[in-house]
Amino acid sequence: MTEAEWTACTDPTPMLAFLRDQMKSRKMRLFACSCCRHIWHRLIDERSRNAVEAAERYAERLITHVDLKRAWGEASEAFQGSLVTHYGQSKAALAAKHAADPSCSSLVEAVSYAARVGYSQKEFDAEKAIQATLLQDLVGNPFRPVSVASSWLAWNEGTVVKLAKAIYEDRAFDRLPILADALEEAGCQDQDILDHCRQPGEHVRGCWVIDLLLGKA
Fold first, then answer.
1. Do residues 80 and 160 share a domain?
2. More confident residue, 111 or 82
3. Quick one: 92 and 178 in the same domain?
4. Is the pTM of this model over 0.90?
5. Res 30: pLDDT
């Protein structure tokens, strides 16, 4: 895959294949969860939603493997119950179950099933395009590695880090333009970082700029 193909890609499948040896399990799980969150309205069983939230907390080492396994088991029961309901709700429940897979072996399946909640090819293609955008938010541009200057992090008693942490914990991605302003004041001139913070569109837990500033992989 070339940089141009990465930027224009509307299907996460070849992107994930390209990242196979680069993407850590934390990032992959957060990607699966972000795909589930995009179809949140389809997750009508609270056990499915709880499983996605548990998977996110597990990715951040906030809960134990036992806790995740329990949530996965409940999501499995929710999926079994969804088999008699709407097609899209059943696929969404299956995606949530796979996102909470304790072994990490079916996280890719979570992404796949999350894209299949609609009936038509048009809906499927549209959901895949959204997933590709989410993946770009999580990973950035792998062809342009970016580093952080320690002076940015230390500026004004750690203002940049404090802003990034608050955005991450509160899911307050609408504050990313404020973070960009602070980064500029701290001396950042990296347009990839600044543009990403200021671009419209959806950002998710695991956003590459926030992770970079907080030292998360």
1. no
2. 111
3. no
4. yes
5. 97
Residue 85 pLDDT exceeds 80 = no
As a whole number of angstroms, the longest Cα–Cα distance in the chain is 57
- Asked which of 113, 139, 165 is the last residue of a domain, the reply is 139
Q: Are 22 and 115 within one domain? A: yes
Tell whether 133 and 166 lie within a shared domain. no
**Positive or negative: CA dihedral 114, 208, 53, 49:** negative
Q: Which domain holds residue 104?
A: 3-139
Q: Which residues contact 167 (CB under 8 A, 6 or more apart)?
A: 173, 175, 176, 179, 210
Number of domains comprising the chain? 2
Residue carrying structure tokens 């792998």: 142
The Cα 159–Cα 93 span in angstroms is 40
Residue pLDDT, tens place only, 25-80:
999 999 999 999 999 999 999 999 999 999 999 999 999 999 999 999 999 999 99
